[in-house]
Amino acid sequence: MNIVIEIAKPKDVEKILNIYKPYILNTAITFECEVPSIEEFRQRIINTLKNYPYLVAKIDDVIVGYAYTSAFKNRAAYNWAVETSVYVDVKHHNMGIGKALYQKLENISKKQNILNMNACIAVLDKGSVSFHQHMGYVQVAYFHQCGYKLGKWYDMVWMEKMLGEHKVEPETFIPFSKLDYQR
């Protein structure tokens, strides 16, 4: 099986949204409760790509997962930290797709001079937490009953991975749209 990672294109929006939709409707993996319109979701991709990577994973030219980074906080002092998100088609779990997407995100983030990768995870089971631990993330915060969805309260954890050394003067953050990105 060959997993190909590419930059998402606005024309991919329906396929990407179809992967995300079951997570919205049937799980608390995302705390989003309503499926966004295709146009709203397309705009999210376009806006993300200005500063951060938005990637799709393909097998046999079919999109089977996606991942992106986004601003950790919208303040200049946080330019070296991002929040990560990854979603894999429910029929393609445990095939290395999430790992391939995260590895590519990390590679790109290093080129952007990102130092901290952060993941916000709803505590449903050990799956997402274990995946992030396997990818080198450590838990840095635990929040109790902070999200309510599908008739239940959920705890949430923040996990973090350091990509580089925090020097006195960090290298300048490079927006993804300005990066000379090579596959």
UniProtKB/TrEMBL annotation:
Keywords: Acyltransferase, Transferase. PROSITE patterns: GNAT (PS51186). Residues 3-164 form the N-acetyltransferase domain. GO terms for molecular function: acyltransferase activity, transferring groups other than amino-acyl groups. This is Phosphinothricin acetyltransferase. It comes from Thomasclavelia cocleata.
